[in-house]
Write a structure and sequence with these properties.
By secondary structure, this protein is α/β, with parallel strands linked by helices. The protein has a five-stranded mixed β-sheet with strand order 1-2-3-4-5. Helix 2 links the parallel strand 3 and strand 4. The radius of gyration is 12 Å and the shape is globular.
């Protein structure tokens, strides 16, 4: 998985490319959680994300809870059909902001 972090003013965008699984979830968490302290908005660009496992979902949940506790907006954009199906089946579409 490749993660590209782009910071513009109070917005941090993470472009995620590849699989978000048990091997790569820790990498995303290590980059994402500290960024919540330096931004008002976090955007996860999922255009090139093609797989998410339960470990990846756990990181998204942790990030959302952390963002909520710090009044930071966290949203996912460019979510493909396969990833959206996983988010819908697990109920994450009611937890996460997907645009």
């Amino acid at each position: 998985m490749i993660i590209e972090k782009i910071k513009e003013n109070d917005i941090v965008t993470f472009k995620i490319d590849g699989k978000l699984d048990v091997v790569t979830a820790t990498k995303l968490q290590e980059e994402l959680i500290p960024s919540i302290n330096e931004a008002k908005t976090i955007v996860l660009d999922c255009e090139k994300l093609y797989y998410v496992s339960s470990a990846g979902l756990r990181v998204l949940l942790i990030a959302q809870k952390t963002a909520n506790s710090k009044n930071v907006t966290l949203s996912l954009c460019n979510v493909g059909d396969c990833i959206m199906e996983v988010l819908e089946m697990t109920g994450f579409t009611t937890i996460l902001s997907i645009v």
